[in-house]
Amino acid sequence: MKIYKQKFELESTTQIEFLNITDKVQEIIDNSGIREGQVVIYSPHTTMGIMLNHNEPMLLQDFLKVFHRLIPVDSQYSHDLFELRRGRMADGRSNGQAHCQTMLIGVSETVPVEKGKMMITERQSIFAVEFDGSRKRDIVVQVVGA
């Protein structure tokens, strides 16, 4: 069994953004030389998640509506109030909402690899989902197999 890990950086430009990283993940699998196994895509951030879904612009808008309906921006998040009481505003952001949104999708996905390719359909894409942009972020991709 072989393990290959690579980190890459990406940059979001808006508050909430779906960044398609499918091609980059496949490039890392190609570089790994692993033909059979699995790939783990991981965001080491608490306000950026990873998800696998259909890459269709209207559906991405629907996802935004769901995130805003379930976790509205105008709620009072204790995380934000704690930062205010302590007088520390990490980088000028109140981001309790972003942490809660990330909780919905999680920070990783695992995808089987067969014959050197991810076992996803042509309609599926892997997204790094920014909930606290714009920021520079790291993504870790680990390929395990033979």
Q: In terms of topology, how is this protein built?
A:
Layout: E1 2-11, E2 17-20, H1 22-32, E3 37-42, E4 48-54, H2 57-70, H3 78-86, H4 96-105, E5 108-114, E6 117-118, E7 124-130, E8 136-145
Antiparallel strand pairs: 1-8, 2-7, 3-5, 3-8, 4-7, 5-6
Q: Can you walk me through this structure?
A:
The chain has one domain (2-145): Sandwich (Jelly Rolls). Helix content is 30%, strand content 36%. It has helices at residues 22-32, 57-70, 78-86, 96-105; strands spanning 2-11, 17-20, 37-42, 48-54, 108-114, 117-118, 124-130, 136-145. The strands form 2 sheets. The protein has a 5-stranded antiparallel sheet with strand order 1-8-3-5-6, with helices on one face. 27% of the residues are buried. The mean pLDDT is 92.
- Domain tally: 1
Largest sheet, spatial ordering of strands: 1-8-3-5-6
Return the string of H and E elements: EEHEEHHHEEEE
The residue-averaged pLDDT reads 92
β-sheet strand percentage = 35-45%
How would you summarize this macromolecular structure in one to three sentences?
This protein is α+β, with helices and mostly antiparallel strands and about 150 residues long. It has one domain: Sandwich (Jelly Rolls), CATH 2.60.120. The protein is built from four helices and eight strands, in the order E-E-H-E-E-H-H-H-E-E-E-E.
